[in-house]
Amino acid sequence: MLLTTDTEVQPSAENHAPPLLHVHIKRSQGWAALNLHELWEYRELLYLLTWRDIRVRYKQTVLGGAWAVVQPLLMMVVFSVFFGRLMNTPSDGLPYPVFSFCALLPWQLFAFGLTQAGNSLVANQHVITKVYFPRLLVPLSAVIAGLLDFAVAFVVLLALMAFYAIVPSIAILTLPFFILLALASAVAAGLWLSALNVQYRDVRHIIPFLTQVWLFATPIAYSGNLVPKQWQLLYGLNPMVGVVDGFRWALLGTPPPAASIFVSATVVGVALIGGLLYFRRVEKTFADVV
Q1: Which residues are bridge partners to 4 per DSSP?
Q2: Exposure b/e, 244-256, CB count within 10 A at least 16 = b
Q3: What 8-state DSSP symbol labels residue 217?
Q4: All residues at 6 or more sequence positions from 188 whose CB lies less than 8 Å from its CB, including other chains
Q5: CA-to-CA distance for 39 and 144, rounded, in angstroms?
Q6: Radius of gyration in angstroms for the set of CA atoms belonging to the chain, rounded to a whole number
Q7: Rounded to an integer, what distance in angstroms lies between the CA atom of residue 266 and that of residue 89?
Q8: Cβ within 8 Å of residue 212, ≥6 positions away
Q9: DSSP state of 275
Q10: Neighbours of 262 (CB within 10 A)
């Protein structure tokens, strides 16, 4: 969508009439440019949408922000009982609770962003149909809102590490990279799903199933080292493999992620660029279809 403006002075008796502002809205043709500079111009709106998503999530809840800790803790307990004790799954020589909880943190960040971003456009249809703003802000704010839960749960992880006397090495300095990779993975998948969800409402039913399958395809309850070496590169096509392995390496001192991290990063980059292009391509139809 292209917006152009021009001014025109209308004659009047005193010749003091203010100039009239004309706004011409032209429908873009072909593949639209990304125009990512618009995100910076609307940065305050991004902040407001993110803060709104955080408030709505915990509004009229009994536990409130405690859910940020309760959810991964409960999953850690379930994994520890079934995988750690009953199945005796290897945990790279680490206590299984901290082994699984460390992987659940980036997974919860990714799964939350994927789910919220995938449904974000449909959930905000009352805004999209009334006023123009970069639609990219909607799925982006949904993903960024998950950082608050991640920060709260990360404090619990540090407490668990202290309890088991686990001291991170200098590799912890790489942790921001893996956090960004998890966010980028959620944004990449969320852009595709949110745009498709506007056109095909079946997508909202696919998202929960997709996250469940993705959970067990990611080395959270088990170690990625269990995957045979000849399949490691193929396994790395799942971007969360590199994220989870990177988290465990940076915080718990497990073996560093091998070539799979480069495969995961490449997949995220391609999916993100493709998602941005496709999102901008169909963005002009959102207000008519949603």
Answers
A1: 24
A2: bbbbbbbbbbbee
A3: T
A4: 239, 268, 271, 272, 274, 275
A5: 14
A6: 23
A7: 30
A8: none
A9: H
A10: 13
CB 232 within 8 A of CB 260: yes
- pTM: predicted TM-score of the whole model, two decimal places: 0.83
Distance CA 191, CA 275 (A): 5
In tens, the pLDDT along 44-96 reads 888 898 888 888 777 756 566 676 778 888 888 888 888 888 888 888 889 99
For 124, the token pair is: 């905000």
Which phi and psi angles does 3 have, rounded to 5°?
Answer: -115, 125
Give me the numbers of helices (H) and strands (E) for the chain, helices first please: 14, 2
CA angle 175, 187, 257 (to 5 degrees): 35
> Hey, how many other C-beta atoms are within 10 angstroms of the C-beta on 57?
18
